[in-house]
Amino acid sequence: RWPNNVVAHNGLADTLKAQDRLDEAERLYRDTVSRWPNNVVAHNGLADTLKAQDRLDEAERLYRDTVSRWPNNVVAHNGLADTLKAQDRLDEAERLYRDTVSRWPNDVFAHTGLAETLRAQGRLDEAERLYREIVSRWPNDRIARHGLANVLRKRKRFEEALELVPDPGMLRGRQDQYDLHLRGMVFLNSGSVDSAIALFMQALNQQLSHKRRNLFVSTLALAELKHKDYLAAIKALDTIEKTTPSVLTLRLHAVAGNDDESEARRIHSELTSNVLHFPKLKLVKEPLQKITTAYGLDSRHGLKTPTTVQLDELIQSEIEMLLAA
User: Which one of 189, 266, 297, 307 has the fewest CB atoms closer than 10 angstroms to its CB?
Assistant: First the structure.
């Protein structure tokens, strides 16, 4: 009805992005940027879509162009800082977030981005303090509560974490999915594996995008790995459509646990020899190394049987891998 309305075009592209229909969103954003080259919302939307596709170098370049053209646009500043964080350039991200918080002290996204960067740096005391300040100022902001809960989970204060992410019941939106996913991970981290599995199954029985479904299937497989039910983990992973580094890492753990040496060595070779093809391979480096050591994949003398301590440390690293993904 209104083909020349830029707000409608941006709104449709943003809706497609929220549905994880990223190729369609990118095409529409590019068309909008071409038709309305002076519209900052379209430029930010396209950059965020590139970031969601893990095309981080392209996203960074576009965000830098946007910041240069619109230096007073807080969304562009936050987007650039978030892209730097996704690239593990945490010192640069922290500096930019601190500058953004100083310039826009009432922007909750800048505050939560800084807190998440501190958490990623392992500065958990600082991250917890900042998250508590944010929750106090913006008590209805679920991203801040989610971030605080994740910090408490890492500090093994599981009951406090669960209080911040109650079971949402029906999943009415993305934030409900995030809450339920983190709640399940807290249960898994605390050793309440059956409670975690029940939550992951609750999510999988509802309507989810392919990306969210794959995430919940991955966490279900991880719970089965915690149970040492390797066949159940393999069966779950077989339903995932798109192979990612984290999925391959979980599959490696599952087949090694199932004593399938030839398949374990095949996957191990694929993961270790294709580092440059995976933009997010940094997420899998720690669990990959732990699997390699625990199962003896760095030698040619058959698979080893991991110790209980090695398995516990491996599961912990895989929890962090999936939450970071």
Answer: 307
Q: Are 180 and 199 in contact (CB under 8 A)?
A: yes
The pLDDT profile of the chain, 325 residues, written as one tens digit per residue, is 888 899 999 999 999 998 889 999 999 999 999 999 999 999 999 999 999 998 999 999 999 999 999 999 999 999 999 999 999 899 999 999 999 999 999 999 999 999 999 999 999 999 999 999 999 999 999 999 999 999 999 999 999 999 998 877 766 777 788 889 999 999 999 999 999 999 999 999 988 888 889 999 999 999 999 999 999 999 999 999 777 889 999 999 999 999 999 999 999 998 888 755 665 567 788 999 999 999 999 888 889 999 999 999 999 999 999 998 7
> How many angstroms separate the CA atoms of 70 and 219, rounded?
40
Best CA proximity match to 196, nearest among 172, 235, 162, 145:
162
Closest to 278 in 3D by CA, of 310, 236, 246: 246
| 267 alpha carbon, distance to own chain's centre | 23
- Using CB atoms within 10 A of its CB, is residue 231 exposed (0-12), middle (13-18) or buried (19+)? exposed
How does DSSP assign 248-315, residue by residue?
Answer: HHHHHHHHHHTT-HHHHHHHHHHHHH-GGG-TTTHHHHHHHHHHHHHTTTTSSS-PPPPPHHHHHHHH
Residue type, 147: G
Q: Which residue has the tokens 């190394």?
A: 289
Residue 151, judged by CB atoms within 10 A of its CB (0-12, 13-18, 19+), counts as buried
3-class DSSP state for residue 317? Answer: helix
